[in-house]
Design a protein that fits this description.
Length: about 300
């Protein structure tokens, strides 16, 4: 199915601040700005540098979503393409592609999946090959569970969640007490995991169930491949937990927090909303809202004006 500039402008609405070029009836689809295969497609350019106009001019894309400054620089160059200026080109591109080219819906249960008779599966759910859903699990409507996923007893999944291949949710947390004779005794892990609506969980992610209460992932949060979320953790809404990061037991993560790849958050740490944790950082103490930290141990980053990013 093709679409034209009128369809793109209809999706973006008031986001559009400037349009340059003639209407195009049919656009081939989404392409990369610098790709050799970009001919006739829709691309975006988030680049604000002086190189941006040149990249746009050289692109084979027919329609390009970009910043207004780039459009102004190219307005008198006679380009045979349509430029659409918005405040956030990447976000606008995402909205257009998701609206005009929605992903194929997957529905049903693969014959090799194993679902316990007491599990509650919502409408429009997909369960992939070799996945296992234990007793008393609840899965909200339109959720996609890819292959080889394991949901342990009592796991609650919201609506429109995507869980990628190999994820394990609700396994027993890592909790032990050492006796006087040196022997280790496992603390009983009797809780469960709750996943909010519109969460995405990457491949081979592990999220442990709480010891006695709940491990919770807030609505809209996205967790990248190979991340580990320990028992009793509470993660807020719309967070980004990136690849290979570790959130240790009983941490509380506020809304919209971003944890970069390979970062580690020490157990029982509280992270304020909108905080950002840099690549490979090790957080060993609480962070206030809005702060940006990096390093081992993690410390506030210094802005270009010499001030420290100490949050609100």
């Amino acid at each position: 199915m093709g679409f034209g500039t009128s369809d793109i402008l209809s999706v973006l609405g008031d986001e559009v601040v400037l349009v340059h070029g003639e209407p195009i009836a049919s656009v081939a689809g989404g392409v990369s700005l610098d790709s050799e295969a970009a001919e006739g497609g829709l691309a975006f350019c988030s680049d604000r540098s002086k190189e941006a106009p040149g990249r746009i001019a050289r692109s084979g894309a027919t329609v390009i979503i970009c910043h207004a400054r780039a459009v102004e620089c190219l307005a008198d160059k006679g380009l045979q393409k349509t430029l659409i200026a918005v405040a956030n080109p990447r976000l606008a591109y995402i909205r257009v592609m998701n609206k005009l080219y929605p992903p194929d819906s997957e529905v049903g249960v693969d014959v090799t999946a194993k679902i316990h008779s007491t599990a509650d599966i919502g409408a429009g759910v997909y369960v992939g090959p070799q996945s296992v859903i234990d007793a008393d699990c609840r899965i909200g409507e339109a959720t996609v569970i890819e292959s080889h996923v394991r949901l342990h007893r009592g796991t609650c999944i919201g609506k429109r969640v995507r869980i990628c291949a190999g994820a394990v949710i609700g396994a027993a947390g890592f909790g032990f007490e050492r006796a006087p004779d040196g022997k280790l005794h496992r603390f009983p892990q009797r809780g469960h995991v709750e996943i909010g609506d519109d969460v995405e969980i990457g491949a081979n992610v592990c999220i442990d169930r709480a010891a006695q209460d709940v491990t919770r992932i807030g609505a809209g949060t996205k967790i990248d491949d190979l991340a580990y979320i320990a028992h009793n953790v509470r993660i807020g809404e719309d967070c980004l937990i990136m690849a290979s990061s570790i959130v240790a037991g009983s941490c509380v993560i506020g809304d919209r927090v971003e944890i970069s790849p390979g970062a580690i958050v020490r157990d029982k740490t509280v992270i304020g909303e909108d905080a950002r944790i840099g690549l490979g950082a090790v957080v060993v103490s609480d962070l206030v809202a809005g702060i940006t930290v990096a390093g081992v141990p993690a410390k506030p980053m210094t802005d270009r004006d010499g001030t420290s990013g100490k949050g609100r």
